[in-house]
Give the backbone structure.
Amino acid sequence: MATIKQTILFLTLVVFGATACKQKQTTEIREDFKKYYDQFNVVGSFVLYDPQTDKYILYNQSQLKQAFSPASTFKICNSLIGLETGVIKDENFVITWDSVVRQNPNWNSDHNLKTAFKNSTVWYYQELARRVGGQQMKYWLDKANYGNTDTSGGIDKFWLRGGLRISPQQQIDFLKRFHDNQLPFSERSVNIVKKIMIAKDTLNYVIRAKAGWGEQNNKDLGWYVGYLETKGNVYYFANCIQSADFNNKDFANARLDIVYLILDNLKLTNK
């Protein structure tokens, strides 16, 4: 019969073994990724998180915790809130165009959640936010712990030109909780948004992502955030770019293209 000392020793070894097996988080700095930003005449930063090895791959680490306006990357959270509150029933829920002609011709028609997400239709999400209302919006931002949760600047502008800010590291954290169904939203709401987020679907991998474009500190600000699923593994990424040249014709493409160049460099999309 085991003595108390033997039992304590056994439990100690079990705890020690479990601790020893746990991987230590590592960080790899890739300053060579600067060539991709130079290629498009922008500055910025890149984060990739590999949960399988608990490893961060970073370019320009100084921006990892720097707060930026989320711009249209907030549409991920906005969609979840719209669904969870019942303001939007599903991805086919139509909001009628207000007949105001806007610069992007893809916006000038009725949209449902699916097409509004794909085309980043600002007016659709502004109307969604107005229907959710300030009180409910703030409640869900706090509950989801999204960025700094600041809704100042107007119910239909706070993520564009208002007080809402999020860092690249917080983008990764939000995406991880989203993927793992650890956000305070129903599985149904999460699954609908996961479906409309699909940006690339190939035989080898699936990418779910959202781009954003805004202005902060007299500079163009661009995002591309999301995650890649391949062979049972998942990799989270956040690309944040800035440019003082408002006439930079490469800016829109740079948000996405830099990500795909880096994923290819890391051999995550060409396995």
